[in-house]
Design goal:
Helix content is about 0%, strand content about 90%. It is mainly β and about 180 residues long. A six-stranded antiparallel β-sheet has the order 1-2-3-4-5-6, with no helix packed on it. It starts with a strand and ends in a 5-residue tail after the last strand.
């Protein structure tokens, strides 16, 4: 009998600020300018793990394997941008400031019981089931600046999906030479 366990934890954070300036001219005369400022901030983490139990039967040609695992992750991101456009003939100015905030999350769980039979010294056959559940979610907000420090927010309905997994497993494996 053997018990195996492994897993991974990941985290990431980023803040990116970009600024672009563009101007248009005809025959040396300015037509317009565009100044764009964008901020992109992201925080995310994920955890993945699995545990495996393997038991050999007395004749060594049969094994029972049970693998149980899961993953969860979460991502928060916010994008802010500001566009200032200035026109010179006639003189006018236009400014638009917007944002979009997203939160995504996922939870995935599975169990995989299987039986392995050694056919000969070259081949093994595994039969089993994969049972699982996966939940995904997305929450989003968007907005446009109407007055100083006052955004008109648009709440977009939360999107959640759930998937149940039930699938048979059949694996034919060629056994290599062991060293």
């Amino acid at each position: 009998q053997r018990f195996l366990f492994d897993g991974v934890l990941n985290t990431r954070s980023s803040d990116i600020l970009t600024e672009n300036f563009t101007s248009s001219t005809i025959a040396g005369q300015f037509i317009n300018t565009l100044n764009n400022q964008t901020t992109d901030a992201t925080q995310e983490w994920s955890i993945w793990s699995r545990g495996t139990f393997i038991s050999k039967f007395k004749n060594e040609k049969h094994q029972f394997k049970l693998e149980i695992g899961g993953q969860t992750d979460d991502n928060d991101s916010r994008l802010d941008w500001l566009n200032n456009t200035e026109f010179f003939n006639p003189v006018s100015q236009n400014s638009i400031q917007q944002f979009q905030a997203n939160t995504t999350n996922r939870l995935s769980l599975y169990a995989e019981p299987s039986f392995l039979k050694k056919v000969n010294n070259t081949w093994t056959v595994s039969l089993g089931l994969r049972l699982g559940l996966e939940d995904n979610g997305l929450a989003r907000k968007e907005g446009i600046l109407k007055t100083v420090d006052q955004f008109e927010e648009i709440d977009i309905p939360v999107t959640d999906t759930r998937q149940q997994i039930f699938s048979p497993l059949f694996i034919l494996n060629r056994v290599g030479k062991q060293s």
